Amino acid sequence: MARKRDSFYINSEGGNYEALKRGIQWLIKQCEKDGNQNAFLCVPTKQNLTGVISDTLGKDYTNILSKNNEARLPNNLGKLILITERSKNVNNSGPCLVLYPSSKLLNKIDSYTELRKVLVIPWGWNSNIQNWIKTWNAKELETNDKKNAEQFIKNPVVDEALRDLLESINTSTGIS
Question: What is the second-level CATH architecture of the domain 6-141?
């Protein structure tokens, strides 16, 4: 029996600050919307908290998170719990932000049956990420710009023609 999970990803590569900010905004919004007490931040190892993540969250905050495996979320929402490849199992249904996952971390997250909302931000596109997207039928987390652009296409004939065109072209190479 398939588990019910809302799975998303952000189409990003490398240490993308904007993608990380969007991911954190998504996580906090899910906590506010669902009234969850806890949320999860998943990285392969604690060393991944340096660089882009500590620059975005702040060095003091990431130090607390690394030392205690948890930190307070803003606005008294609850805790942000750190999960790494070495973490023990988690039994909680809070939203989960997965940053730069390895195949081992993706498998660990997949084994957590209580998680109902997961957002993955990859470091690079590989078969593990593509398989995860396919397995969970993950949807790309859209930006407001993309949503607004879609609203401008009012003519169903134009909309269908553009969809057909995009399906026939490899958008990463431009070759059809």
Answer: 3-Layer(aba) Sandwich (3.40)
* pTM reported for the whole predicted model: 0.78
Task: Enumerate the domain spans of the chain.
Answer: 6-141, 143-176
Q: Which of 47-51, 81-85, 89-93 has the lowest mean pLDDT?
A: 89-93
Helix axes 127-135, 103-111, angle to 10 degrees: 20
Total Cβ atoms within 10 A of residue 54: 17
Confidence band, pLDDT 50/70/90 cuts, at residue 89: confident
- For residues 118 and 98, what is the distance between their CA atoms, to the nearest angstrom? 7
pLDDT tens-digit series, residues 28-59: 999 888 776 789 999 999 999 999 999 999 99
Instruction: Return the ∠ at Cα 81 (arms to 126 and 105), rounded to 5°.
Output: 25
In a 3-state reduction of DSSP, which class is residue 101?
A: coil
Q: Would you state the pLDDT for residue 88?
A: 83
C-alpha pair distances (Å), 48 with each of 20, 64, 85, 92, 114: 13, 14, 11, 23, 25
- Amino acid, res. 114: E
Task: Give the residue among 132, 164, 168, 176 at the shortest CA–CA distance from 8.
Answer: 132
